[in-house]
Hints:
Blueprint: H1 2-5, H2 9-31, H3 33-41, H4 60-79, H5 81-108, H6 111-131, H7 134-139, H8 142-184, H9 186-193, H10 196-206, H11 210-233, H12 235-240, H13 244-297, H14 309-350, E1 371-379, E2 388-396, E3 400-404, H15 411-417, E4 426-431, E5 434-435, H16 441-446, E6 448-452, H17 462-466, H18 475-484, H19 488-492, H20 511-525, E7 529-533, H21 541-555, E8 559-563, E9 575-580, E10 583-588, H22 590-596, H23 599-608
Parallel strand pairs: 3-8, 3-9, 6-7, 7-8
Antiparallel strand pairs: 1-2, 1-4, 4-5, 9-10
Amino acid sequence: MRRYATPYLPYLGGSIFLNIFSAVFNIFSFSFVIPMLNILFNIGGTEYVFMDWHAEGMAFKDILINNVYWYVTSFMAEHGAVNALMLLCGLLGVMTLLKTSCYFGSSAIMIPIRTGIVRDIRVSLYNKLLSLPLGFFSEEKKGDILSRMTGDVGEVESSITSSIEILIKDPILIILYFSALLYISPELTLFTVVFVPPFVWVMGRIGKTLRKSSSQAQQLWGATISQVEETLGGLRIIKAFNAERKMGNRFSDVTEQYRRRVNRVNTRQASAHPVSEFLGTVMIMIVLAFGGSMIITGKGIFGGKFIDAPTFIFFMIILYSVIAPIKELSKATYNIPRGLASMDRINKILKAENTLPEKADAVKLDGFSDKISIHGVDFTYDGSRQILKNISFDIPKGKTIAIVGESGAGKSTLVDLLPRFYDVTGGSITIDGHDIRDVSLHSLRSLMGNVNQDPILFNDTIFNNIAFGVEGATMEDVVAAAKVANAHEFIMEKEEGYETNIGDRGIKLSGGQRQRLSIARAILKNPPILILDEATASLDTESERSVQEALDRLMTSRTTIAIAHRLSTIKNADEIIVMKDGEIVERGRHEQLTALGGYYKKLNDMQAL
């Protein structure tokens, strides 16, 4: 949290400066109460004579009080008590105006700090999510991540950043108010201080378990968001299986758990104000009784002369004023653990280890000129079950390599290793002789274009989806790519053409249209290496024909690695890699593998049926 506050230290300095002046003006405004009470009730009747500011044997405090009273009594004698009272009221108003102006300035200057810190946390969190490898997200629920981006960051904003002003202002007020109390009456102040530690201790006990309870509440909120996200993604299945009641009951259970936890947190928070109010009143009551008895007897704690009644009232006003910042400070120490609990959850992402580190001296690839070599590759996600076992083959430049096999054979995992979405756990993958672990990720992935079975599109215009990841793409470039991908015709049928918004994940388009947009995106990128992951598997016959034509154009003069579900689409591949249970069991061209009469022929015959 400290590193997010550091850029705003100048603002903090300005806030401290204004808060000091606000407190000073507040004390001075209260000091006018003493002469006002003397005038109203004609207390004392002492004759005052102006004293030299450097008079020997006199404390500055006594000289100051004497000369102020001399001026007030002189003004009263010349202009009357009523005018003197009006003058004091006017000075009180001026001091109050200065105090409130400084208070407003100190509050206003904190606004950029609060909003800036929250923005910086959210941006850091988002950028960290972009930098983390895919393996991280297989361990985390998407809804829980969304909860940390929204609920936890919001909790930090409402708890920690909103308390920064209190942590700056209230200690200043407490220090200056207690300094004023010591100046007015050291003995009565020391008596008062005895009650502050128990006051703070009781408030601390109230919030002791808050951080843990708040963390549990945020975890439950993450579970709630996760279920909402799952429901929106699976609404078609929920309705098809008449599972609305089942999902509703699940959601009710998790929200009820969240409600109970929040009730516990909020009940503890609600107790803070009445407890602090009661303790403050008890302290005022004890001091009032103790100080009032000394005024009546005229003797202080140590037998000396005690302060007069107007000064005692001034003392009580300052004492009552110091209770408010103490209460706010105790409230802040109660709120901050809630924000710290959320910050712990945020830090779990911010401090997550990147398991795909890039070397400081990483090689930058300028192009692809020879071949990709996969040598003795093993891979496991969790260290227990082996997904790939001793995979070895070469992919020469300009050739098309197809990878086939039943579901779970490891095909998609293998192609995910090429752009280094994951690192091999054994063996190596090289491009033009460079181990991809020694290559910069940006230059590596710049060489590759992906077309997946489930096209990933964004809630944006058709133009921006095709131009995604290509800086400075013109309309002519995008249209040319769309024509090659057999997409231009259906795009122009849209009322807004290339400026049509396609909705969340391209929901406003058909499956074939979405796939052709993803192909157009790959064409515009113009990568030397193309990865096709069952790009036509989920399409109907007509859509498949249009998409396959677009793919054939895309594959021309490119090195292509194609995962194929329909074997008819890869008959012309330069080599077919047949996988089963994470191993290569056969390899060759279509005619060779068919004549071999092995596993590939079995797959081909099953599709022919």
